[in-house]
Every structure is written in structure tokens, then in C-alpha cells.
Amino acid sequence: MAEPLIFELSSPGRRGTVWPACDVPQQPLETLLPAARRAQPPRLPEVSELDVVRHFTRLSQMNYAIDTTFVPLGSCSMKYNPKVNDRIASLPGFAQLHPYQPAETCQGALEVLYRLERGLAEVTGMADCSLQPSAGAQGELTGLKIVRAYHAAQGHPRKVVLIPDSAHGTNPASAALSGYTVREIKSGRNGLVDVAALREAMHGDVACLMLTNPNTLGLFEREILQITAILHEHDALVYLDGANMNAMLGLVKPGTMGVDIIQLNLHKTFSTPHGGGGPGAGPVAVVQKLVPFLPTPRIERQGDRYVWNDRHPQSIGRVRSFYGNAGILIRAWAYLVAHGREGLVKIGRMAVMNANYLRARLAPHVELPYGRTCMHEFVASLAALKPAGVTTLDVAKRLLDYGFYAPTIYFPLIVSEAMMIEPTESESKETLDAFADALIAIIDEARRDPELVRTSPHATAVRRLDEVQAARQLDLRWQPAPGEKASR
Amino acid sequence: MDYVANTTTQEQQMLRAIGVERFEELLSDIPASLRNPTLALPAGVAELELVSRAKALARQNRCAEELDSYLGAGMYEHHIPSVVDALANRGEFATAYTPYQAEASQGTLQAIYEYQTLICELTGMEVANASLYDGASSLAEAALVALRVTGRRRLLVSEAVHPEYRQVLRTYLDGNGWPVEEIPAPSGITDRAEIAQRLSHDVAAVIVQTPNFFGCVESLAELGEAAKRRGALFIVCAYPIALGVIQPPGVASADIVIGEGQSLGNPISYGGPTLGFFAAKQELVRRIPGRLAGRTVDAERACGYVLTLQAREQHIRRDKASSNVCTNEALLALRATIYLSALGPQGLRELALLNLQKSHYAHSRLRQIPQVTAAFAQPFFNEFVIQFADSVDTQRLEQRLLEQGILGGVSLGRWYPALKQAWLICVTETKTKAQIDRFIDTLAQNVQVAHG
Amino acid sequence: MNIPADLRYTKSHEWARREADQKSVVVGITEHAQEELKDVVFVELPPVGKAVKAGEAVAVVESVKAAFDIYAPVSGTIAAVNTQLERQPQLVNQDSYGQGWFFKITPSQSKEWEQLMSSGDYTKALQVST
């Protein structure tokens, strides 16, 4: 049953909020704002509080989410989001704190942020960390600005960034935004970086390699030490896309692999809720020689006090307003404290174990083009269903009918009809079994009754949506029926 | 503690199914020397211990629940109706992924579509995206759009745009060789003569904020006309609550309207998470960074929603994408949608009027204090700048107010050396007349003490 | 697969046709390319008068889940663009060699024409790549 738009529930004169009467002496609006007053109110819905509650509750019921089902999206680490973290972030002492309060009134918040920086630096094996970037892609941008600043300080800002063809799309986009030319490195037949091709691509103008490890096939770069050494021979840097850090928690530290910069997606590895697309947080950790370039302001400890410091002349400057997504950072701190040493190791181990178990369960039924085992995720190809006229997209949609969110599909680009599956450590064997059974059943359906799969989903709030029409006949906002007054 | 579900028995079953004897075999691709590092971290704690520790730290902060805060400067304390938390905290919204599988994400998608509509209505623009990180990065993204669309190189940015936004703009543009020129605002609003003088045919965009960082309402129409005559884009950073009473930038020929949407139902939360909104004219629709939700039909011709125009985005266009943005602030956009729905047009207007009246009341009382002058004589919304006489030790004054439980204002000297004796003071609907009176009486008493 | 014999081709799946007056070259994408793309939802065209080099990306064609650059087969100046595609991008799918054309170039170097693939060469190239 479709839910009307909130605007369609509107009834003139109805209202959902009442404000207190104005208790100060009032002046005429014309005196206070002699010009540039709003002529007509915006067409906001006129609804009661109960209308609002029912509307958004009904909308929520159309969503699949971690709290309702398994979300095996590859490279997204859709793990359980502990409720206690939300509770902590909403304590008034954190949620009602203003960023421009004097530091002496924010010592608790500063301590949380400082300790999170230290914790993330320790987990990644790096020297220091900035919590400022708002998300993974902004972390990448920050990292690349640091690369540029580092080489500029050496007297020669370089021009080229090397990126393997299996990388996330944000990598080349961030490099281009930072003014670099992107050179793609083809993967070898084993799905890993072709070390010979990398060596050949190296020259004095290469600023850095943007590497994802484990890569988007869920494979650990076996030659990682050789790869980072090749870059360092030319004083180029190694940027690690930390989107897949969940595979490494407690098992290996990027700093020991020769990585110089890494961003962490706290909304993945550190369990902060995805929120239907954000907010996230993308802290950046670096080795010692890059610390002076981190964004400002920095939190520093002076005796037993914490202070802000923006006097770092070599810093790349600010990448966002205020001090980062503090409410998200507080949740990540809580997650780190709750788990501690052993807990983090357990996350890394169980993330790898669950992925390998699911991989083994599916191995007889799907093509697994790369690797014998995997780290935290793996990529299957459903190209074998093509003769039946069934695509990976069809299978993904059919999974929704079985009550599961679909894995990442058609990525990485180097695998045809790709399905990229990451179960995370949160899921039980029972859930993994149920998912495997569903996928196997759908593959069987695809052969017996392809039409059923091709026309799926059948059990969701809406049937398969026409994305072509959405793109050709853009409808990006509600418009009132003709005759109603325009806003302005 | 941890949140792992599998038992040790299940682990054994799983290892057998995988076909290995020991878990370590699965890590054989990791060079042995790097495996199983030591982690210098404390042991984990149970939830009970975690909550006590967090509460102890939260108590070390003196927040707006305990203090009367008159701080604004980009993050505003507004009342958040209870429905916002109750609805947005539902797990179906909060723990959902980005709505790539549209059929299983209609709740998020329809809410984004409604959000896009609301932002268009507020700003007077034709299209809006699903949100960006914050006001600062939205401004930088808008500038990048202008540079690409016009093929020009220069940007004119008012000094009355939030200083941190201008810093972020410089960081984003650094290395690309695009000069950012700052236009002074000596009278509290952007110097129109200076704009006119510098506005030649190589300017990509004129960027202003309204109400600006000093709280003053800019004369958008004139600036917009000037930009238009020279073929530059007119980019306006706006404060959404103020748009309840001031003219929407769309009326004043803005090409792009961006801003910080925190004030729409989101807690200040020490400066984040934030909500960058981004609205534009229809002709720029394909240049807009970030996600867009669109309405379409399903296989049975029923109405539904999808992410659309994705071919502009980084996961498809890679190094040629319109932006590197991936994450948006969907949950905050949802909160803004619930907030604006709960307020309605009348509620928003009344809210804006309350802010306007209360701040003017505070302003008129403050001006009666001998050591205080109004810095500017411009119309303002809920924020204004006052100057203290040179003899006033403003740091000491800040301290004295704090001792009385008052956060008096944001000192402007760190960004504007000429305004080292100035405070930016914000008064929202959250302050009663009694609180405002106490603030001003306390300030009046202590300005004399700090003075003497 | 329809690969008209009177057209020339590129490895990147553009076709080129010399107008009868020999003054301009019409460019579009091949039937194979439009099939691979599936439903075209948007075409971005270059400004008329723009100077282009052979092999330069001058237009973009988008489907729902993909975007591809369209390269100039020959150097010259953009003489005209098919503005109908702005409203009806589906013409690229429906009539890729006719109403689905992208732009016309006034060529500056006649010898580049000779270097383009014949229909036979393009057919062979397709067989190798598929």
C-alpha cells in the first residue's frame, strides 16, 4: 500500500507545533526587516503531530535495515550498531555542546576525541590521526591533500596517482578533485596488483598509490611489502583506502605494511549507524613524517588539560566546519572502549571466518573467479545464469523477496555479473545458512522459472522500479496542482 | 565485550565446512611477520561500565542544559520537537544502508524526495540534492560547479561568509590554481562597490551568505543582478530558519543556494554531524554533486522512488565524476523533513518571528550599556555583533559570565583582527525574556568590573 | 548486427559518415554500442564551433548505470549537434545510424578519414573483442 507524500496529507490550517507566545516587547516586522521580507510562506505541509508520526512510521516500515534483516553488502561492513552507542552520543553533555564553547567547558568531549585519535592510531599502526573528515571520500580528499603538501614541501608537487582497476569509484574521483591525473593499474590474473605493471608505471612524477587492502575482491595483497617498497624507492607515498579495515582489525596493522596514510570509515568498521546513507566519519591516520600536514585544528594535551591548536603552519588547513562529526565519533569511541584489545581481534577473526564460511557454502553453486579463501568479503559471478536470461540484478531483487537485503552488485568492475558479499562478524551461522539457502534456491528458480526471478521483487512495498523513466523524465520534487500559489 | 553471535562449537563447525583445521590458515596471504600484532589497548568493558564512564566524561562538559548559551556562528540552539527523535531514531531508518536497492528502501527514498521538495520550497529553488556533509563543503562543491559550468577561474567570496567555510573552500581549491578573492564587508554587509569593481568576465561566481556570519541580512537582489550581468553564478549560503521571514534567495536570482541545515531539527552535538543542503536552478541539475532521489513508477505503474542521475556520480564516472562525494547525511535530512513537517508554514513563520523579536530585544537592551556599541547598523535576524570599549577585558568578561552560567557570545578576534573587541551574539526562541534580562544585567554588571 | 558498409568506424564504436557535400562528417555510435549501453537516458553534446582533435572526448552518453565518452573520429570544428537527443535520448537506441546521430564535424585534416576503419575491419574488430 503506497504512502501518500506528506504534502498530500496537508489540510489548510492544521498544525503540528505550537510555540510559546512572544514574551518580549515586539516591534513591527517592517521596522526590523525594512526590505527583502518573504512575500509568501513556503508550501510546507499542514499536518497534525499524529499525521507526522503515522506518515514517517509507515515510511520506516518500507525499509530493510540491519535492525530488521541481514544486509550482506560487500565493502560496506553492515554490522550491528550497538544501541548503547546511540544512548551515549545523545547524553546532553555531548549532544548539547557548542563547538565554540571555551575548551575548559568541554574537557570530557575533548578527552573522548583525543582518546579515539590515539586508539585509531594504535589499531592502524600509524603515528597520529585527525578526526575531522566527514566521510570516507572526504578522508580520501584529505589524504591526497596531505600527499600534495608533503611533495610540495619537498619542492616538487607531483602529478600522477596510481589506482588499481578494482578500486572504489571514490578513489579516482578524489584524486581528480585534488588535481591529480589518474593512471589505472590493471589487476593481475589472480586479482591482485600486478607488481611488474606497477614497477613499470613508476616514475618521478608519481605522488602515490591508492590501494585497497584487502582489495574489493576480498583478497589480501600478498606482495604488499614489495608494493609499498616500490613506491617508497621513488619517495612516493602509499595511501590505503581503509574501507575494508574490518578484515584487518587486530589481525594486521596497515602501518607495518608500509602504508603512509589511511582513512577509516567509522560507519563501516566502527559500527556507527548508516542512517540510510549517512552521516559517516572518515578519520585519517598518518605516519610520523606526515603528521605536520594533518588538518587543523588539532587536539593537544597539555598536562591534564586538552586544548585546541590551529597553529600548524604546514597543515593542509580545514576540510570541514567545526571539529568533525562529533556525535559519530563519540559512538566509535564507545565501540572501541567496549571491545578493547581482545574484542577487536574477535571482530577481525569472525569477520574473516563468516565470509569464508558463506563462501564455502556457496562454492558448489556459484562461480568464484578469484582466490581459494578470502578475507572479510568475496566476489561471486552469476554469469552462468545468462543463458537462462537471468542477471545478477534479477537475483539481487529476488533476494529481497526472501527477506534479505541484496549484496553489492556489478562491482568490482573486473568481474562480470558480480555479486560482492560481506557478512560481517555480527551475523550468526544460522543467518548465514538461511541466506545461503535462499541464494541457492533462487539459482534453482532461475533455471526452472526464470520469469519469476526476472519479475521480482514480488513481496516488497513496490515492484521493480523503472529507473530509465526516472532518469529520462526527471521528477525530483513534489509540485502542487496547477493553480496553487507558488512559493516565494 | 563484543557483539559476535557464533559460539565456539559453531566456530568449529564453520572451520570444518571451510575445509581448514585452524583459523590461522585463512590468513596465509598476510606476510607472517605482520600477522597478529600486539595492540596496546585496554581490555574491553561491559555495557554498564561503558555507560558509567561515558556519563562521567559527559559531566565534565558544561552544556546548554546547564548554561544559558548565546553562541551561534553557524550552529544554532533551537527547540527540537519530540517527534523528531522518536521517529528518526527508529532502527528501520537509522540502521538502513544507502538506498541502492530501491524496492527495499522506499522509506528512505520517499523521505529524501520530500526533503528535496522542502529545501526547494524554503530556498525558492527548483532542484535540491539529498544532502552533503555540511555547509562548508556544500559551499566548496557549489564553487566547483561554478568553475566547471563557466570555465572561468576567479571566485569572489564575501568576507562575511563564515570564516571556516572560506578556509574549507581554500583547502578544496588548493593545488588547482583557482584564485579565491575575498570581498570586504566593513559595514556588516558585503561591499557592493568592491564587487562591482572586481566583477569582470573571468569571474566564475559571487559567493555571499544571508543572514551573513555577522547576522546581517544581505541585499541579495542587487548582488545577484550584478553577477548575472557578468555571466557569473550567484551562490548564496542561507540559514534555513531565517528563510521563514526573509526573502528566499531564489527570488534574488541565486543560481545555487547552499547552507548548514543543522538548525532544522538536529542537535548541535559539538559541531557535528551536520547537514549540508544544496539547491540549484533546474538548468544545473546534472552538475549537482551527490545523490538525488526521483519519483518513477514500478512494474505495475504504481508510484515509487529511486536514486537517479547516478551516472554523474563517482561509482560510475570515477575520475570524471561531478564530485567525489559518496556519503550524504540522510538521517539528518530525514530529521529536517520531520521537523519542517511538524512545524508547517505557520509554525516556521512564528518561529522565525520569535527569533527576530527576541534577538532585537536583547540587542536594544545591550546597546544601552555604556561600554557596548552595535558594530553594524544593518537589519539582522537572530544574531548580531556588539563591540566593547577598548578598555573592556573581554576574556575576563567571558570568564565572569561563565561563572554565572552564561555563554555570552563568540569572540570574533580570531577571524577578524579589526573586531578583536567584538562578540557575535545569538538569541533564539529557546531564551525567555527572564533569561535574556539576566544575561544583560549580568553582562552590564560585569562589564564594569572587567572594565575597572 | 547492422554495420552499414557506407560508413567508417572507430575502435571506440563511433560511426562516421561524410555528407554528400563532403564538407562535414556526421558522427554517432554503432548499433553494437547502443545495445551494450542499453537504455540511453542522457546525451551531453559539445558546443557548436568547438575545435576538436581526433580521439578527443567531446560528448557523453549515459544509461542508468553507465556513462561513456564519445570521441571525435576526425579533427576539425563542431558544425552542428543533434539537439533532438536532449529531449529524446532514446533515439540513440531506436535509430543509431539515423536520427540518433550526435554531432557534425567540419574536418580540418582530410587524411584522418582514410585512417578510420571500414565496415569490414570493424566487423572483424567486434568478433575479436566478443
Summarize this, please?
The complex is a heterotrimer of chains A (488), B (452) and C (130). With 452 residues, chain B is an alpha/beta fold. Chain B contains 13 helices and 15 strands.
SSE map:
The complex is a heterotrimer of chains A (488), B (452) and C (130).
Chain A (H helix, E strand, L loop, with lengths): L28 H4 L16 H12 L22 H7 L2 H4 L11 H18 L3 E3 L5 H18 L6 E5 L5 H8 L3 E5 L9 H7 L4 E7 L11 H10 L3 E6 L18 E4 L19 E3 L11 E5 L2 E5 L16 H37 L15 E4 L10 H10 L6 E2 L8 E4 L7 H20 L1 H5 L12 H6 L16
Parallel strand pairs in A: 2-3, 2-4, 4-5, 5-6
Antiparallel strand pairs in A: 1-7, 6-7, 8-9, 10-12, 11-12
Helix pairs in contact in A: 3-10, 5-10, 6-7, 10-12
Chain B lengths: L7 H11 L28 H13 L8 E2 L12 H7 L2 H4 L11 H18 L3 E2 L6 H16 L3 E5 L4 H11 L6 E4 L8 H7 L4 E8 L9 H10 L3 E6 L17 E5 L15 E5 L12 E5 L5 E5 L6 H4 L12 H37 L5 E3 L8 E6 L5 H10 L2 E2 L2 E2 L10 E5 L6 H19 L1
Parallel strand pairs in B: 1-13, 3-4, 3-5, 5-6, 6-7
Antiparallel strand pairs in B: 2-8, 7-8, 9-10, 11-12, 12-15, 14-15
Helix pairs in contact in B: 3-11, 5-11, 6-7, 11-13, 12-13
Chain C lengths: L7 E2 L4 E5 L6 E5 L1 H7 L2 E5 L6 E2 L4 E7 L3 E5 L4 E6 L2 H4 L3 H4 L8 E5 L3 H5 L3 H11 L1
Characterization of this structure:
The complex is a heterotrimer of chains A (488), B (452) and C (130). By secondary structure, chain A is of the alpha/beta class. Chain A has helices at 29-32, 49-60, 83-89, 92-95, 107-124, 136-153, 170-177, 195-201, 224-233, 326-362, 392-401, 429-448, 450-454, 467-472, and strands spanning 128-130, 160-164, 181-185, 206-212, 237-242, 261-264, 284-286, 298-302, 305-309, 378-381, 408-409, 418-421. Chain A is globular. Chain B has 452 residues and is an alpha/beta fold. In chain B, the strands form four sheets. Chain B has a seven-stranded mixed sheet, with helices on both faces. In chain B, helix 3 runs antiparallel to helix 11 (330-366). Chain C has 130 residues and is of the alpha+beta class. Chain C has one domain: RNA polymerase II/Efflux pump adaptor protein, barrel-sandwich hybrid domain (OB fold (Dihydrolipoamide Acetyltransferase, E2P), Beta Barrel). In chain C, the strands form two sheets. Chain C has a six-stranded antiparallel sheet. The two termini of chain C are 13 Å apart. The mean pLDDT of chain C is 93. Chains in contact: A-B, A-C, B-C. Chains A and B meet through helix 2, helix 3, helix 4, helix 5 and helix 6 of A and helix 1, helix 2, helix 3, helix 4 and helix 5 of B.
